[in-house]
Amino acid sequence: IKEASQWASQYLKKNVTPSSISYLVQYGRIRKFGDNGSLKISKKDLARYYESYNGKREIHWKNQLGDDLNWGLSFDQLKESERTKHVHRLHPYKGKFIPQLVEYFLDDHIDMFKKKAYFRQGDIVLDPFAGSGTTLVQANELGIYAIGIDISSFNSLISNVKIRKHNFIEIYYETSRITKALRKYIADSNTVIFEKRLLEELAKFNDKFFPSPDFKHWVSERKIDEEKYGAEKAGNFLSIFNKLKDEYGICLSTNGNGNFHDKWFFKHVKSEIEFVYGLIEKIVDEDVREVLSIILSRTIRSCRATTHSDLATLKEPVTATYYCHKHGKMCKPLFSIFGWWERYCQDTLERLEEFNKVRTNAHQICLTGDARNINIFESLKKVDKNLYALAKKTKIAGVFSSPPYVGLIDYHEQHAYAYDLFGLERQDNSEIGPLSKGQGKDARELYIEDIAAVLLNCQKFLSRNFVIFLVANDKFNLYPKIAELAKLTIVEQYRRPVLNRTERDKGAYSESIFCLRKMQE
């Protein structure tokens, strides 16, 4: 290993430590030969890694962000399906971390970076910014109890549906019943016939003007100006679209002055949503009703009148066919929820059943409340007496959480469609660090106070030797001050590259995992 680090330093013309080489072995980037007493690696394997896509990216990013990046925590070797395993893709959510990062710090393994285990089976972990429940789910897999807190009632709903035990027979019965009812409801609709005809015309048009995969090659080789060509062909197809729309009497206008549903859903799409929600409301079993509510929420998110590339950040309603940058061809907005409803019913059941195979008997729950002042034990007592009794007896071992990043996301607004449909109470004004407040000096100072207040409140319920892990992109260097105000000390800081991002900007980007302990008096 030492010899390899010396060779790599000469090869890359920069310092490569023995621990960097060890991590490549540990995370399977290069093979090892011999045992721990006489561990050797192949120079050819090492050179091949540094010349690979990930090897070059690692070198480039470390040149920009620093050699202290822990590339092992990028989990770049994982497939997308592993990063979104079972219930982790039950519902879209901006700002969630990947489950393997949570698992790395919650499980009891140790390595060259993580020198000790911080949590054990039977412990309780707290996530005061629970979001969509990633920490709760991974805690369950590891046999660790968990309590989540979130200011958003919809976030709590997502989290609790993920970690709760379910009656799968009843869920299957209700999804099948409502699917049949929806199919019958739209059977005689002109919209179904219109969409079928439109898809036929789009297929012919795309085959002619956007052949796959040739068109994408032409764009990459700059033989075609994608912007200009796409806009031109979108205009050419519009006459076909309008002719079909008029033929079947389809109304595709939206009301920009109304609520979210008025602005982002066509009239006939809204009628389908209201029809399905009316059936869900009548379900007696609360758990089954909430599972189907999550399926409907995920469905309608995919059916908003927008382009495929703008689902995460809505711009303006799209009421006609358009050139799609994501797919490199002409696409259309959604005119019915049926296809996505049917697909998500099946996907949700599969994911819940997949998680059920690996779940443990440890309990988790997400409480709706303000983490700055919530009485965790009293709130827990009202909804889960067994977990309350355990928490009172043993106290909470520690925290693993990812606080909101200052001025990045409006957490309620990202699910505005669900709040409007379900009539849930919004607490936008209680969000910490929302996008609407920006990233200016005042916003940063308020953020520091709020995060510190959360940490101070949480400490009332933690065990004597608690540990706190916070995942944050601290580009404004706010966490040293937060730690000081919360009477904590940052004892360790892990930095990881953030790969596999959905944004178009794929530049070098990292975040820190702060390990904090109680400040010595």
Commentary on this structure:
This protein is α/β, with parallel strands linked by helices and 521 residues long. It contains 21 helices and nine strands. The protein has helices at 2-12, 18-26, 43-51, 53-65, 80-83, 99-106, 134-141, 153-163, 168-186, 190-209, 214-220, 226-248, 260-264, 267-281, 286-302, 338-358, 376-383, 385-394, 416-422, 441-459, 479-485; strands spanning 124-127, 145-150, 322-324, 329-331, 364-368, 396-401, 462-472, 488-497, 510-518. Helix 9 (168-186) packs antiparallel against helix 16. The protein starts with a helix and ends with a strand.
Highlighted features:
521 residues; alpha/beta; 7-stranded mixed sheet; two-stranded antiparallel sheet; 21 helices; globular
What does this entry show, briefly?
With 521 residues, the chain is α/β, with parallel strands linked by helices.
The largest sheet is: 7 strands, mixed
User: So what's the overall shape?
Assistant: globular
User: What is the CA–CA distance across the termini?
Assistant: 42 Å
Low-pLDDT runs = none
Q: Number of helix segments?
A: 21
Structural class: alpha/beta
What is the subunit arrangement here? single chain
The amount of beta strand, in percent, is: 5-15%
Average of pLDDT: 91
Series of H and E elements: HHHHHHEHEHHHHHHHHEEHEHHEHHEHEE
